[in-house]
Amino acid sequence: MKNKNAIQSVKGVKDILPETAPQWRRVEDSAMEIFDLYNFQEIRVPIFEKTDVFKRSIGETSDIVEKEMYTFTDRGGESLTLRPEGTAPVVRAYIEHKLYNPPGVKKLFYMGPMFRAERPQAGRFRQFHQIGAEVFGSDDPAVDAEMIIMVMDLFIELNIKSLKIKLNSLGCPNCRPSYREALYNFLKERIGSLCDLCNARIEKNPLRALDCKSPGCQAVAAEAPTIDKYWCDDCRAHLDSVRKPLLDLELPVVMDLKLARGLDYYTRTAFEVVSEKLGAQNSVAGGGRYDSLVEQFGGPPTPAMGFALGVERLISLFGESEVNEIEDDAPDIYIVTMNHEAQMKAFELSHRLRSYGYKVERGFGGGSIKSQMRKADRSQSRFTLIIGEDELAKDAATLRDMVSGEQKEAPFNELIDILDEDFGSV
Ligand code: HAM
């Protein structure tokens, strides 16, 4: 039964406990390796920003800005927001630190918590974690394709299957306005079937109705005109060049002409990686091109492309996959001490052992040899080092092999050599 007086975590916010933390490290380490192979550099941006950073980029009509931001006024009266995503802060930092100098392509990645006040449900949290990447300074469709391939490399490395890449182009300032108008006219005639929120926002951004999860809007969206008839030649060519290498590599890419994404900054390429195993919140990664955002933020005109994946959703796909089985992390050596002097000796020995790379656990709190050996057993350490009066007198510990049960004398000054030999033979 839950203790009513005990303080509990906030709804939609999760602890990552020691038993799952290794899975997180596995994802983060694999992502780092892959980013390195693709020559990306890490950027760490703050967890909160001025509210305008998000309002001006994600868009006033997006669900995030409209109803999901954790915004507060700080003591100085400034409006701040916990980051709901990473792209806007990275763009802000790119401009603030003039990362466009020297001119060229800048490839950045980031990892960390994001915050959205969504209704919590399976796969949807209020604090969740993203691993994301952004490339600035090139409008080459090869960048888009390479980023999608890079995301898929991570899934392959983690042995995650049954994925689909949904791809679309949201057009550019040349061709999107005519699609927008056609979509708006279509939606206006069906206004009674749309949800209140879409009713209020289709004038400003009719594309939002395509991304809305309410059943009425989804039914209308299913019949709505698609963007492909409105693409200009350049957008069409760009999309073809993104798609071709994905098809050549036999990646599971499908066109989804209704894919609008939940953020307003996209131009041209938009994509999502979805898994049929995830239920309603099926998108595990998403991204696209945002060629106007840097300029909109006051930077030099800079085309850009990026994506982010949700770590919680990714880990929920780990399943029984052997590749993701976490290695045994029991200590190499457990030190049992029989008196105060032995405890003091254990400081020196454990320090030395750790400096040689051995993972050492010490028994704390004393107790009989029997109870300490029980603790050593429970720790599943490979060896136990016992230090008592006799051992101190002989300047040699008793080293017990916890698998065979054999014991031997290990002189303190030869301990490392003995262990190196023993570990070499296990
Ligand atoms: P997003 O599609 O909003 O895109 O989020 C990316 C991923 O974050 C989603 O596919 C999902 O896995 C995860 N995610 C989003 N919201 C939640 C939530 N409430 N709980 C759990 N996981 C969630 C972006 O954030 C863009 N910044 C991606 C991007 C980068 N576009 C260009 N560059």
UniProtKB/TrEMBL annotation:
GO cellular component, one term: cytoplasm
InterPro entries attached to this UniProt entry: aa-tRNA-synth_II, aa-tRNA-synth_II/BPL/LPL, Anticodon-bd, Anticodon-bd_dom_sf, His-tRNA-ligase, HisRS-like_core, HisRS/HisZ, HisRS_anticodon
Gene Ontology molecular functions: ATP binding; histidine-tRNA ligase activity
Keyword terms: Aminoacyl-tRNA synthetase, ATP-binding, Ligase, Nucleotide-binding, Protein biosynthesis
Pfam families: HGTP_anticodon (PF03129), tRNA-synt_His (PF13393)
PROSITE patterns: AA_TRNA_LIGASE_II
Similarity comment text for this entry: Belongs to the class-II aminoacyl-tRNA synthetase family.
Protein name: histidine--tRNA ligase
Domain Aminoacyl-transfer RNA synthetases class-II family profile stretches: 1-331
Enzyme Commission designation: 6.1.1.21
GO BP term, pick one: histidyl-tRNA aminoacylation
Residue stretches spanning the membrane: none
Broad enzyme group: ligase
